[in-house]
Amino acid sequence: MPRSKIPEGELANFIVKTRYLSSQSTEQQKNLTLIRNMANRMFRDHIGYTLTGEHRIKEKGEPVFAQAVARDARRQPRSSAPAGPKSHVRYLGEGSFLWEGSKVLVLGIPPALKSVEKVDYLVADRFSPALREPLLELMVRYKPTLIALPEVAAEATLRGFKAHAVHLGGGLSLDGITIHGVNAQSSEDLAPCSYVVEMSGTVLYHAGRSALTHDMQVVGDLFHVDVMTVPLGLTLPMSFWAAARAVEWVGARWVLPWTAEEGVFPKELQKHLGDTARVKVLTANETWEVARKGE
Length: 295
What we know:
Structural class: alpha/beta
Number of domains: 2
CATH class of the largest domain: Alpha Beta
CATH architecture of the largest domain: 4-Layer Sandwich
Distance between the termini: 69 Å
Largest sheet: 7 strands, mixed
CATH topology of the largest domain: Metallo-beta-lactamase, Chain A
Number of strands: 16
Order of helices and strands: HHEEHEEEEHEHEEEEEHEHEHEE
CATH superfamily of the largest domain: Ribonuclease Z/Hydroxyacylglutathione hydrolase-like
Protein backbone atom coordinates (compact mmCIF):
# COMPACT_ATOMS: atom_id res chain seq x y z
CA MET A 1 0.00 0.00 0.00
CA PRO A 2 1.62 3.29 -1.07
CA ARG A 3 2.30 5.88 1.59
CA SER A 4 0.18 9.02 1.46
CA LYS A 5 2.16 12.24 1.09
CA ILE A 6 1.95 14.74 3.93
CA PRO A 7 0.61 18.07 2.62
CA GLU A 8 3.44 20.59 2.46
CA GLY A 9 1.59 23.12 4.59
CA GLU A 10 1.05 20.62 7.40
CA LEU A 11 4.67 19.44 7.25
CA ALA A 12 5.97 23.00 7.43
CA ASN A 13 3.71 23.78 10.38
CA PHE A 14 4.82 20.59 12.13
CA ILE A 15 8.52 21.45 11.78
CA VAL A 16 8.01 25.05 12.92
CA LYS A 17 5.83 24.05 15.89
CA THR A 18 8.18 21.24 16.97
CA ARG A 19 11.14 23.62 16.79
CA TYR A 20 9.33 26.16 18.95
CA LEU A 21 7.96 23.77 21.58
CA SER A 22 11.25 21.93 21.98
CA SER A 23 13.06 25.22 22.62
CA GLN A 24 11.02 26.08 25.71
CA SER A 25 13.14 25.83 28.87
CA THR A 26 10.75 23.91 31.12
CA GLU A 27 11.37 20.78 33.15
CA GLN A 28 9.33 18.72 30.70
CA GLN A 29 11.47 19.85 27.76
CA LYS A 30 14.90 18.91 29.12
CA ASN A 31 14.91 15.57 27.33
CA LEU A 32 14.01 17.08 23.96
CA THR A 33 17.51 18.21 22.98
CA LEU A 34 17.73 15.63 20.19
CA ILE A 35 14.31 16.57 18.85
CA ARG A 36 15.21 20.26 19.04
CA ASN A 37 18.44 19.73 17.12
CA MET A 38 16.61 17.71 14.47
CA ALA A 39 13.91 20.37 14.20
CA ASN A 40 16.53 23.11 13.89
CA ARG A 41 18.29 21.24 11.08
CA MET A 42 14.99 20.58 9.30
CA PHE A 43 13.99 24.22 9.70
CA ARG A 44 17.35 25.40 8.36
CA ASP A 45 17.43 22.99 5.42
CA HIS A 46 13.79 22.69 4.39
CA ILE A 47 11.74 25.69 5.49
CA GLY A 48 11.35 28.81 3.35
CA TYR A 49 8.95 31.74 3.26
CA THR A 50 6.20 32.89 0.95
CA LEU A 51 5.94 36.52 -0.15
CA THR A 52 3.37 37.06 2.61
CA GLY A 53 5.71 35.67 5.28
CA GLU A 54 4.14 32.22 5.67
CA HIS A 55 6.31 29.13 6.09
CA ARG A 56 6.66 26.71 3.20
CA ILE A 57 8.80 23.76 2.10
CA LYS A 58 11.75 25.02 0.05
CA GLU A 59 12.43 24.02 -3.51
CA LYS A 60 15.25 21.58 -4.19
CA GLY A 61 18.59 23.40 -4.23
CA GLU A 62 17.18 26.56 -2.66
CA PRO A 63 19.75 28.08 -0.23
CA VAL A 64 19.10 28.36 3.48
CA PHE A 65 17.41 31.57 4.54
CA ALA A 66 20.51 33.25 6.06
CA GLN A 67 22.55 32.49 2.94
CA ALA A 68 19.80 33.90 0.75
CA VAL A 69 19.74 37.14 2.76
CA ALA A 70 23.53 37.46 2.52
CA ARG A 71 23.46 36.71 -1.20
CA ASP A 72 20.79 39.34 -1.85
CA ALA A 73 22.70 41.87 0.27
CA ARG A 74 25.83 41.40 -1.83
CA ARG A 75 23.81 42.10 -4.98
CA GLN A 76 22.71 45.47 -3.64
CA PRO A 77 24.75 48.58 -4.46
CA ARG A 78 27.20 49.67 -1.78
CA SER A 79 25.40 51.26 1.13
CA SER A 80 27.23 54.35 2.31
CA ALA A 81 26.79 57.92 3.41
CA PRO A 82 26.61 60.63 0.76
CA ALA A 83 29.99 61.20 -0.87
CA GLY A 84 31.98 64.06 0.58
CA PRO A 85 35.52 65.34 1.00
CA LYS A 86 38.26 63.06 2.22
CA SER A 87 38.03 62.12 5.86
CA HIS A 88 40.74 61.62 8.48
CA VAL A 89 41.16 59.18 11.36
CA ARG A 90 43.29 59.99 14.40
CA TYR A 91 44.24 57.44 17.04
CA LEU A 92 43.45 58.80 20.52
CA GLY A 93 44.83 55.93 22.57
CA GLU A 94 43.32 52.96 24.44
CA GLY A 95 41.33 51.81 21.44
CA SER A 96 39.63 55.15 20.73
CA PHE A 97 39.66 56.98 17.41
CA LEU A 98 38.60 60.40 16.17
CA TRP A 99 37.04 60.31 12.71
CA GLU A 100 36.63 63.65 11.00
CA GLY A 101 34.51 63.80 7.86
CA SER A 102 31.21 65.58 7.32
CA LYS A 103 31.01 65.50 11.14
CA VAL A 104 33.50 64.86 13.94
CA LEU A 105 33.05 61.50 15.65
CA VAL A 106 34.88 59.98 18.59
CA LEU A 107 34.71 56.19 18.54
CA GLY A 108 35.25 54.82 22.03
CA ILE A 109 35.98 56.59 25.32
CA PRO A 110 39.49 58.09 25.08
CA PRO A 111 41.75 58.78 28.08
CA ALA A 112 42.10 62.43 27.01
CA LEU A 113 41.58 64.63 23.97
CA LYS A 114 44.41 66.85 22.76
CA SER A 115 44.11 69.55 20.11
CA VAL A 116 40.45 68.74 19.49
CA GLU A 117 38.20 71.76 19.11
CA LYS A 118 34.83 70.06 18.78
CA VAL A 119 33.14 66.68 18.85
CA ASP A 120 29.74 66.23 17.22
CA TYR A 121 29.11 62.62 18.23
CA LEU A 122 30.64 60.46 20.93
CA VAL A 123 30.09 56.79 20.08
CA ALA A 124 30.54 54.78 23.29
CA ASP A 125 31.74 51.25 22.56
CA ARG A 126 31.83 50.15 26.22
CA PHE A 127 30.95 51.22 29.73
CA SER A 128 32.02 50.45 33.29
CA PRO A 129 31.98 52.32 36.62
CA ALA A 130 35.60 53.36 36.04
CA LEU A 131 34.62 55.03 32.75
CA ARG A 132 31.73 57.07 34.16
CA GLU A 133 33.89 60.04 35.18
CA PRO A 134 35.92 60.27 31.91
CA LEU A 135 32.69 60.00 29.94
CA LEU A 136 31.04 62.78 31.95
CA GLU A 137 34.08 65.02 31.50
CA LEU A 138 33.93 64.59 27.72
CA MET A 139 30.18 65.25 27.67
CA VAL A 140 30.54 68.43 29.76
CA ARG A 141 33.53 69.77 27.81
CA TYR A 142 32.42 69.13 24.22
CA LYS A 143 28.64 68.71 24.60
CA PRO A 144 28.47 66.05 21.87
CA THR A 145 25.51 63.82 21.15
CA LEU A 146 26.14 60.49 22.82
CA ILE A 147 25.52 57.31 20.82
CA ALA A 148 25.39 54.25 23.08
CA LEU A 149 23.45 51.19 24.14
CA PRO A 150 20.05 52.00 25.71
CA GLU A 151 21.07 51.76 29.38
CA VAL A 152 24.06 54.09 28.88
CA ALA A 153 22.09 56.55 26.73
CA ALA A 154 19.27 56.59 29.30
CA GLU A 155 21.64 57.59 32.12
CA ALA A 156 23.13 60.36 29.98
CA THR A 157 19.66 61.69 29.17
CA LEU A 158 18.73 61.75 32.86
CA ARG A 159 21.84 63.87 33.49
CA GLY A 160 20.68 66.39 30.86
CA PHE A 161 22.93 65.38 27.96
CA LYS A 162 21.89 64.74 24.37
CA ALA A 163 21.90 61.01 23.66
CA HIS A 164 20.54 58.47 21.21
CA ALA A 165 20.20 54.79 21.98
CA VAL A 166 21.33 52.17 19.47
CA HIS A 167 20.15 48.62 20.01
CA LEU A 168 22.28 45.67 18.97
CA GLY A 169 21.23 44.93 15.41
CA GLY A 170 19.56 48.32 15.11
CA GLY A 171 20.70 51.63 13.75
CA LEU A 172 19.95 55.28 13.21
CA SER A 173 20.70 58.07 10.74
CA LEU A 174 21.73 61.56 11.84
CA ASP A 175 23.17 64.44 9.81
CA GLY A 176 24.01 62.20 6.86
CA ILE A 177 25.67 59.60 9.11
CA THR A 178 24.35 56.08 9.60
CA ILE A 179 25.32 54.10 12.69
CA HIS A 180 24.56 50.41 13.19
CA GLY A 181 24.97 48.61 16.52
CA VAL A 182 26.79 45.27 16.34
CA ASN A 183 27.22 42.62 19.01
CA ALA A 184 30.59 42.61 20.79
CA GLN A 185 32.13 40.17 23.26
CA SER A 186 34.31 41.54 26.05
CA SER A 187 35.27 40.22 29.48
CA GLU A 188 36.08 43.60 31.00
CA ASP A 189 33.13 45.88 30.25
CA LEU A 190 29.45 46.00 31.23
CA ALA A 191 28.01 47.18 27.94
CA PRO A 192 30.36 46.32 25.04
CA CYS A 193 29.20 47.21 21.56
CA SER A 194 30.76 47.46 18.12
CA TYR A 195 29.55 49.81 15.40
CA VAL A 196 29.37 50.04 11.63
CA VAL A 197 29.45 53.74 10.76
CA GLU A 198 28.82 55.19 7.30
CA MET A 199 30.08 58.73 6.71
CA SER A 200 31.54 60.73 3.83
CA GLY A 201 31.28 57.79 1.45
CA THR A 202 33.27 55.47 3.75
CA VAL A 203 32.05 52.49 5.79
CA LEU A 204 34.05 51.98 8.99
CA TYR A 205 33.61 49.03 11.34
CA HIS A 206 34.78 49.89 14.85
CA ALA A 207 35.19 46.56 16.62
CA GLY A 208 35.98 48.27 19.92
CA ARG A 209 37.34 45.80 22.46
CA SER A 210 35.49 42.81 21.06
CA ALA A 211 37.02 39.38 20.79
CA LEU A 212 36.57 37.35 17.61
CA THR A 213 32.87 36.49 17.13
CA HIS A 214 30.80 34.96 14.35
CA ASP A 215 28.83 38.23 14.24
CA MET A 216 31.75 39.56 12.20
CA GLN A 217 30.75 37.19 9.41
CA VAL A 218 27.32 38.82 9.39
CA VAL A 219 28.94 42.25 9.20
CA GLY A 220 30.86 41.07 6.14
CA ASP A 221 27.66 39.72 4.59
CA LEU A 222 25.58 42.85 5.12
CA PHE A 223 28.08 45.69 4.72
CA HIS A 224 30.89 46.61 2.34
CA VAL A 225 33.42 47.67 4.97
CA ASP A 226 36.27 49.93 3.86
CA VAL A 227 38.10 50.38 7.18
CA MET A 228 38.12 48.22 10.31
CA THR A 229 39.63 48.84 13.74
CA VAL A 230 40.76 45.81 15.78
CA PRO A 231 42.28 45.27 19.25
CA LEU A 232 45.52 43.38 18.71
CA GLY A 233 47.92 41.83 21.21
CA LEU A 234 48.49 39.23 23.91
CA THR A 235 46.88 41.46 26.54
CA LEU A 236 43.98 42.41 24.24
CA PRO A 237 41.04 40.37 22.93
CA MET A 238 42.60 39.34 19.58
CA SER A 239 45.88 37.66 18.70
CA PHE A 240 47.15 38.27 15.18
CA TRP A 241 45.59 35.04 13.88
CA ALA A 242 42.21 35.92 15.43
CA ALA A 243 42.42 39.44 14.01
CA ALA A 244 43.31 38.03 10.59
CA ARG A 245 40.22 35.81 10.69
CA ALA A 246 38.09 38.78 11.77
CA VAL A 247 39.35 40.88 8.86
CA GLU A 248 38.77 37.95 6.50
CA TRP A 249 35.17 37.61 7.66
CA VAL A 250 34.47 41.35 7.53
CA GLY A 251 36.21 41.84 4.18
CA ALA A 252 37.71 45.23 5.07
CA ARG A 253 40.22 46.83 2.68
CA TRP A 254 42.13 48.66 5.42
CA VAL A 255 42.82 47.60 9.01
CA LEU A 256 43.71 49.95 11.86
CA PRO A 257 45.01 47.77 14.71
CA TRP A 258 45.64 49.27 18.10
CA THR A 259 48.14 47.36 20.14
CA ALA A 260 50.55 47.43 23.06
CA GLU A 261 52.98 45.18 21.18
CA GLU A 262 53.96 47.60 18.42
CA GLY A 263 55.95 46.11 15.58
CA VAL A 264 55.66 42.35 15.97
CA PHE A 265 51.91 41.79 15.99
CA PRO A 266 51.01 44.21 13.16
CA LYS A 267 53.70 42.62 10.97
CA GLU A 268 52.34 39.15 11.72
CA LEU A 269 48.83 40.37 10.96
CA GLN A 270 49.90 41.74 7.56
CA LYS A 271 51.72 38.48 6.87
CA HIS A 272 48.56 36.47 7.53
CA LEU A 273 46.38 38.83 5.49
CA GLY A 274 48.65 38.88 2.46
CA ASP A 275 47.24 41.14 -0.24
CA THR A 276 43.62 40.85 0.91
CA ALA A 277 43.86 43.92 3.18
CA ARG A 278 46.37 46.59 4.15
CA VAL A 279 47.43 47.26 7.74
CA LYS A 280 47.99 50.81 8.97
CA VAL A 281 49.35 51.24 12.51
CA LEU A 282 48.74 54.64 14.08
CA THR A 283 50.70 55.88 17.08
CA ALA A 284 48.99 58.06 19.69
CA ASN A 285 47.58 61.26 18.09
CA GLU A 286 48.79 60.24 14.62
CA THR A 287 46.37 61.08 11.81
CA TRP A 288 45.67 59.02 8.70
CA GLU A 289 43.89 60.27 5.61
CA VAL A 290 41.27 57.63 4.85
CA ALA A 291 41.97 56.01 1.51
CA ARG A 292 39.31 56.41 -1.12
CA LYS A 293 37.77 53.35 -2.69
CA GLY A 294 40.28 51.70 -5.00
CA GLU A 295 43.30 53.11 -3.15
